[in-house]
Amino acid sequence: xxxxxxxxxxxxxxxxxxxxxxxxxxxxxxxxxxxxxxxxxxxxxxxxxxxxxxxxxxxxxxxxxxxxxxxxxxxxxxxxxxxxxxxxxxxxxxxxxxxxxxxxxxxxxxxxxxxxxxxxxxxxxxxxxxxxxxxxxxxxxxxxxxx
Length: 147
Description:
Elements: H1 18-45, H2 56-62, H3 66-94, H4 98-124, H5 139-145
């Protein structure tokens, strides 16, 4: 009778698997980012007067509507989380010292969180009339808005 070798069964991990969810997030966010970025580029560069129309007034007009505020915030959040998750993966793959790896992963997370908070504040608190002087180009517009 010959001895058969049986390959060991792979153990199934129970609970939350962050690497699996990170992998799935990268695929989903990548597809969504393509739509968001190309939509952003199309509206900013192709519609109307194209690149020549992009100035402070153009951005102020876009950020006057919640649709474009949320579009840009979603693009910002996904891009930062997508990029920081990719950097986390690279650090986990190539940094061998445990302390350095933990410090770098924390630094990446803190930088991403800070940029997400600051970017979100800029988009939602943007006031085109803040600091506009009487001889400024936007003075008439701000008067019409009652600001």
